[in-house]
Amino acid sequence: MRLNKELITRNRGSLENLSIGPLEDFVERVVQFGEGNFLRAFVDWQLNELNRKGLFKGKVIVVQPLDSGQIDVLNEQDGLYTVLMRGIENGKQTERAEIVTCISRGINPYSDWKGFLKIATLPSLRYIVSNTTEAGIKYSKVDFPENDCPATFPAKLTAFLYQRFKAYNGSDEHGFIVIPCELIENNGTTLKDCVLRHSNDWGLGPDFDRWVTRSNYFCNTLVDRIVPGYPKDEIQELTKKLGYEDKLLVAAELFHLWVIHGDSIVKKELPFADAGLNVVWTDDITPYRTLKVRILNGAHTLISIPSFLAGNDTVKQTMDDALVRNLLYVGLFSEILPTLDFEEKVKKDYAEKTLERFRNPFVKHYLTSIMLNTVSKFKVRVLPSLLSYHELNKKLPRVLTFSLSSLIAFYCQGKFAGQAQSGFRNYTRVDDSQVLDFFDKLVGAPVEVVVDKVLANRGFWGGDLTAVSGLKELVSEDLKSILKHGMRDSINEILKETKSI
Known about the structure:
alpha/beta, Rossmann fold, N-(1-d-carboxylethyl)-l-norvaline Dehydrogenase, domain 2, six-stranded parallel beta sheet, globular
């Protein structure tokens, strides 16, 4: 049996062990750009909680951000899906399954551009949320989309806002609260800037620009929840346990945090705290972002490639592997934390909580998913700690530098002139085509040449890393060790050097 409203209506008694959101036809109040796992397990799940407690009474219209996606499946299931949350709570293994019911429908703007624009005229709409990946909020010049859907999210949003502006003659009360969830700094501010640039390109006029700025709230945010997604390895067992088929079932950890920079008006309209949700409203999002990006995301990125090349496939396996785990601990506690300007207890507690989340036995978080687009991730998540450590201590952080060496080994697939490969796995690199082309051109070159060109690539790092004293030499040394001895023996040598074993 496939999950849909009819199934719930007919079988509610047999589903009594599940938490099911309200099935009332609430008004459509939210437009959501993105139908992926994270938004459904994070934003929609929280809106569902508000609905369950009578604090929102609203539905979500989901907009498919790419030409291909899951909107058809979502509509086939009447907007319903299951969030399976599992982890350790109060020292005990905990599992909760909830059917989210807050989505009314989905629309594909690529096949129904006019229908998408018509949604903008709905008077009940008030909120816009999005998650179009870290590369989603960027400006690309395009023609005004009269009849066809533009490729970028900011262009779609600008056209949507302009339709709203025209429908209500620029009325202040018909503006939106825009809450992007993309993991970039100042995501709300950046998105608004993109909208205004498109407005200028398209000649939408100063009145529209004033309405965008005055009548719409663009909130900067930070989101935090590990969402492994569709549990493909367990789906037969879970389908039998749940009693129905759900093609959109999404697994997530119990922990969640949403930090939103917004004023009292926005906070009052969205009473997340009254629903017991971990949502923080703040005037300064920077400290929360720094902790999350440098500790949680930084730990993920620094260890994912070394762990993968050491033979592991998941974060949990990484934490169960004493050798690799020790490398992570040294990198996190001895090299990352000392560079962060926070109270010792605050950053240590956050790091300990992060490692507890990594040990979650229910979350099968594949390293390959963390390794997507590692070059851009390393720049944001690990490189600031590496450079800060070097500046503070006048020496290089041993583990963070080794992680950079591992990145180069991974992207060059172990193929260097005069170097034998040791223990390299078969894998597929996933990154921007320009990044992959850059590394492919280096395949077969000597280690020193490769390292020099990679570190000097300002497009990767925002600067020339060959200027960092000793970095080129140490990365080359580590890279040769990885190629000659393999990842595990190389990690062992790093730990001996740092006196961690």
